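Name: persulfide dioxygenase
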Amino acid sequence: MGSFTTLSQSSSRLLFRQLFEKESSTYTYLLADSFHPDKPALLIDPVDKTVDRDLSLVRELGLKLIYAINTHVHADHVTGTGLIKGKVPGVKSVISKASGSRADVFVEPGDKISFGDLFLEVRATPGHTVGCVTYVTGDGPDQPQPRMAFTGDTLLIRGCGRTDFQGGSSEQLYKSVHSQIFTLPKETLLYPAHDYKGFTVTTVGEEMQYNPRLTKNEETFRSIMQNLNLPYPKMIDVAVPANMVCGLQDLESKAN
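Structure predicted for persulfide dioxygenase:
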């Protein structure tokens, strides 16, 4: 655990907060460049019910919110990006092009999302949905160390997202994790979109050793995922249509 508290100068540049929405057990992440004059910031996976809390924190910390980002089209809650765009002029919503959703900015593998002198790298990690991406902090002496990856529902702490709806594929998810996440340095901190047992963070090394699903071979993993017998997500019929248009409201179409 000691490595978690040893921060380099570049790490102290990054202002980081992990926020929680209890009904859907969703984590929202606030990142900002605290050394930049404007203190530009972004939110990853905001939830509609906690938008006011998140924006209050942004104001208290003196940040300038420039992006509201989703890792994928969520099925268990409505994204807060639409509400945020209505409350904070100039904020741009971001999601993967592969998601087929509406947003101001569509990202593809290899793209960089810059905020001040920091950036997130986009990695395609489909499997839970066709449009899932993982956002990874930059690799370089002026970027936070250890690196951080925001894995959405692709990789959870000692688990992974389900693969039985929204174009999910257990084969794709397995390959995504092993090729795009497990190839990161073992000390990389992993922050998921959800946790249901009270955990907040893990590392690549931990999950490579202890994840009960993704340490198995691909055939065994596929069998595990096919036999989860999970209930139909209670919010899916509301959340997915709303999230395909950037949350509760498609502000651009209303303006037009």
